Amino acid sequence: MSITMHTGPTTARLAVASMATRMLTLSYGGLAYLIFLGTFLYAVGFVSGFVVPKTLDQAAGTGPSASLTTALLINLVVMSIFAVQHSGMARRGFKRLFANFASPAIERSTYVLLASLSLILLYWQWQPMPSMVWNIENSVAADIVTAGGFLGWLIVLYSTFLISHFELFGLTQVVSHFAGRVTEPMKFKTPGLYRMIRHPIYLGFIIAFWCTPTMTLGHLLFASVTTAYILVGIYLEERDLVAMFGDEYRRYRDRVAMLVPRIF
Length: 264
Hints:
By secondary structure, the protein is mainly alpha-helical.
């Protein structure tokens, strides 16, 4: 996802669509956001192992566990489905193609909706791989690591609000469309954490995925593959950002660290 780009409403008026069309667009965007919100909250429990009925390490129900080979294959497939959807639809070429078939006002909501459905598929089909890699037995140390994981999720959420949370997940676009406004061209901005690192959202995910007092083989697979995907995603995203903002983004990239703040 683009994490340093921002759009906002202007007073320019669209060719006024029918009220029914605008209501449908608004409802679609609102539904996509609600599905995303539920999916995100479930992700916290799924990775952290709290509250939800199925987690990375615990299957729902009491059915037989898949063999290690089968579990590995299924897990790689569902992670690949998410990666292809998430990266493919984020590219500028797809956005131009989408605009030929549907209103640009719902492009972001469609992206968010399909990303959420891909994650729901992952939750549903994920096969636990319970072999232990590490287990922190000291309760204080375990609590500190667990808190670190929740801190990662907070960094993710906080960073989305730094760059306009509701626009990032498509609500601003559908509300503007309902009101008969268009959005301004994308602007480059670097508020808050973005002055220290270029990708705080991705950093938050990495922290959340790796900070666990009990690391199973399945959790290690999930954390390793998603971290590799994040690094590839950063490369693709920054290529798009350079194409869009040119030297302005190159200077930012030279000045600000990617994931780990520079001390000097």
